[in-house]
Write a structure and sequence with these properties.
Length: 411
Amino acid sequence: MQRSIIDAHLNTALPRNSMSGSFKFEYIEHIAAESLPKQDNNYNLGFTNPDRALDFTARIPNAAPPYNPEVLLPFDKSQAITEQYLVAIHSLEFIAAGILTFSDFGFFENCALPIDLSTREALIGEPICWGSDFADWYAREHLLEELFNRQLSKSYLDKIYNGLKDHAIHGDAVILSAPGQEIYGHWLLDVIPKLHILQQSGHEDLPIYFNSLPGWATHFLNSFGISRSRIRPHPSRYFRVRRAIVPTSSKSGFRLGGNSLREAWTRISRPARVTLPSDFIGEKIFLSRGSWTQGARPSHANISDIEAAAVARGYKIVFPETLDIPQQIRLMQSARIIVGEDGSALHNIIFSEPGARLGVLSLPERTNLWHLSLCHVLGHQLSYCYGDAYGIVPLSKFNAFLDILEAQVCP
């Protein structure tokens, strides 16, 4: 059968059907590969699959950019990171951005896992930000096996199915709840591109179901002209939607769709008249987690000494959580070199002018390739610097790291 999505080729690394006890997972990527294409003058507009009650309309095609080896500056483990990244972006699944339409599906718990009620298949995949590992944990955590136990009688299953009628959304509705919906980095990578696609698709008046909306998200909603009055909590833990509108993400693995992402990030990066503390303004900044108490990720053992060394080199120490979103955007627009420990705050590199440099301080057991992916599609450069087994970065190594970042950028 003819392939049905822009830039789509089936990734055989995806299992055909992942089982979780009494129900199964199915990848949207697999459904796309088996569906009928929607075309206009040989331009692929998406796919439709009546048997699956699923439809996709592409809004922005995304061709993966060729890899530029100069993105990663030579330093700690740079050759190994390059090899790891090239493998990670070898996904051949589609990254076109558009609108998925689910007809008469159930959505379950806080992250709104979509389930075909007639087949008891839970749909997962990159287009809706559902990875298999998280989906399997989510299913166990929320006892979906008990809810859809295949050993139970048909009458019991019919009772569950019919019970959802009491918690049904009878018209069209936008579903934005998804894994990571409370996390800042996921908003930059996933939610903001979805808001951009939603605005492009002409669904301005539909209610938006978003079960966990952070307070700081208001700025992003305003950037797309979305009033908080449109936001709805889920009507129940399990609910049914006659016609659910779901904007897709623009990534497959660590392979990002640059066209739609750049458009979306431009919308939220428009200059605003904001005031920054004078001691935060500079071309060289260090994003500190020193006053952040909500995360569980460990810091480097000698982070205080590292920050002091950065100050001695002319870096401004910035605590991002003390700034509102417009201030953070303004901060990044004026910075040329950004250094900090691995975390969502470093994703703010999306607000920097092309050619900025990012220095990622990493613990030895973790390499966060999202930083490399973002720099790849935006024309930035970056490098990683790893602590030792005790979480210590020798200051001589840290200063050599800054030398690499500052070369031909700062006097």
